[in-house]
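dude i think i finally got it to work??
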Amino acid sequence: MSGGGERPELERVPETALWTLWHRAVEARRPDAVLHDPVAVELVERIDYPFAERFGEVALVSQLQALRAACFDREVADFLGRHPRGTVVGLGDGLETQSWRVDNGRASWLSVDLPETARLRERLLPPDGRRRILACSATDHRWMDEVDPDPERGVLISTEGLLMYLRPTEVRELIAACAERFPGGALVLDAVPRWFSRRAVAGKLRDRHYTAPPMPFGMDADELGKLAGAHPAVTGVREVYPEGGRGLVRVVLPLARWIKQRPSVVALRFAQS
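look at this
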């Protein structure tokens, strides 16, 4: 299942945009999919890239990635229910298609990513009146100048699949900067456990054709409270648990909550100024 059009030239961390896209599309093609993502399926068909050969096709991996995306979708949908004209900022957005899955027709969307990934997104998912693309590193806080900070409209920052590739100091600085610039806003992040981070840094997360990039930032599920220490304005820290699932995954997910060394999705709330 590889496409025959656009030929992306991404390496290392930027290439993970293709990895996540692939697994969402694999899951979305199933009749019993846990995530409805027709735009991801379309993109894979349009891109000339050896997805299956490079990343493999393991149903469990695809389902888990789709369930992670669904956690972010629920948070964004809830935010837009309270702030219909709010702004959703996707940091390290890659080829994420969330704005088509949960868009309400009124929200503003800003995708922020490195120049090579932003260029690919512009070709495949051109910006329109409510969807913008900004070529900028998430750690270059100048992207914040492109966001309306009005708490009445609302701002939610989504960092799906990003923070694990940053250094711990960069993660803390990013959270602190968002808390200062967007009072009343929110940020949703995901984290890999520390053991997973160590293996990635050592180059031990690999299969026949693909080695995952280093992931310097790891955090076990029982460490979520530490995120509040990034800035005094971080007033709420809440884990977002995956829901549903198929087959054995559906049975195991509720039990996995008791495991501390596991991936997690976390929602942060920022105090009003």
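Residues 71-270 form a domain with the Rossmann fold fold (CATH 3.40.50.150).
im so relieved honestly
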